[in-house]
Design brief:
345 residues; alpha/beta; 6-stranded mixed beta sheet; 5-stranded mixed beta sheet; 10 helices; 11 strands
Length: 345
């Protein structure tokens, strides 16, 4: 599956795909259909645009990653366009000229989502995006992408490390004393659990590695799997970060911890600022904290650091419901198709 997730016919270099996200996504969906990977470009484009309407898919570095699950997709596929001119996908750095359409089958298993998440994680690395911009041929693009999605997972550097909960290595003897280290646990999650979930995790992890006096563990609540952070790691945490567009699973594990909350894209765009806010919250007795009961964070009048308004909380509740309903909608569609097949109209 991994050796042909992208092919030269799924690549467009220095292409004019129009001036809007709709035009770009439609053209990419057409590439997918033309390669025999989708039964309908219109259906695929519609599903990707529906995901785009939930939140922009532009990320730092002039990159965009529209993505979706779709009944029209017949196998996991990546379509890539290096745009000329660039198009606004709502990214923090302006228009995007590197665009990946990540197309996953609606009823597909979890293995292909792990492959797609590898690409999302690579896009936070400047050397990878620079290589995509300088590539002279479609074959070079394919080779770059396959080297990423086929890469063997890195071995854990500590017993607690897993592919879903990746801790920052422990401070060396020359680092700050342990009592000066702030331990943070972060949760990242987006509605589809394909791309932003893992990009946010890697963005926070890489930033924490560059900061003195910070140890950070990320739990990705994505589609490929959820490996919970060990309870002893949570107990030792000084603060938590919730970078999610959906509800946090098993949120009660973090009761009493100072918390910084935001949408998942803020962790991609402002990881250092979020970590600095978490460090400050860990030292502030009046910081916003996670409570039990209804699963929401404390909303007392004197609590500092509360960042999610009611509008964002309502959006999270709706997106959580949508993410849980996707499997049932897909199953219902398959049953309806079988009914038409065997019972007629």
């Amino acid at each position: 599956m991994t050796d042909n997730i992208i092919t030269p016919e799924l690549v467009a270099l220095d292409a004019n795909f129009g001036g809007t996200t709709t035009e770009v996504i439609t053209n990419l969906a057409t590439l997918v259909q033309g390669a025999g990977r989708a039964t309908s470009a219109d259906v695929l484009a519609g599903d990707a645009l529906a995901r785009e309407a939930k939140s922009d898919t532009g990320v730092p570095g002039g990159v965009a990653i529209p993505h979706c699950r779709s009944e029209a997709v017949t196998q996991p596929t990546l379509a890539f366009a290096r745009l000329d001119p660039a198009v606004n996908f709502g990214g923090p750095d302006g228009d995007a000229n590197l665009v990946f359409l990540i197309a996953a089958p609606a009823g597909g298993g979890k293995e292909h989502l792990k492959i797609l998440s590898k690409l999302a994680r690579a896009l936070v690395k400047k050397d990878f995006t620079a290589a995509l911009r300088s590539a002279a041929t479609k074959d070079e693009i394919v080779e770059l992408v396959l080297n990423v999605v086929n890469a063997a997972p890195k071995k854990a550097t500590a017993p607690a490390a897993t592919t879903e909960a990746t801790p920052v290595p422990e401070a060396s003897e020359s680092s700050a004393p342990s009592n000066d280290v702030t331990r943070i646990v972060a949760i990242t999650a987006c509605p589809t659990g394909i791309a932003h979930t893992y990009m946010a995790a890697d963005s926070l992890t890489q930033t924490a590695e560059e900061m003195d006096g910070v140890e950070l563990v990320v739990e990705t609540q994505g589609s490929s799997a959820v490996t919970p952070v060990a309870s002893e790691v949570i107990d030792a945490a000084d603060a938590v970060i919730f970078a999610t567009d959906v509800g946090v699973k098993d949120r009660e594990r973090f009761v009493g911890k100072p918390v910084i909350e935001s949408g998942v894209k803020r962790a991609i765009n402002e990881p250092k600022k979020m970590i600095e806010e978490a460090v400050a919250a860990s030292k502030n007795p009046n910081a916003y904290r996670v409570t039990g009961g209804n699963g929401s964070a404390e909303a007392s009048a004197d609590a500092e650091g509360a960042q999610l308004g009611w509008g964002k909380r309502i959006q999270q509740a709706v997106m959580t419901g949508v993410s849980y309903m996707v499997p049932f909608v897909a199953a219902g569609g398959l049953l309806l198709a079988l009914g038409f097949l065997f019972g007629g109209y």
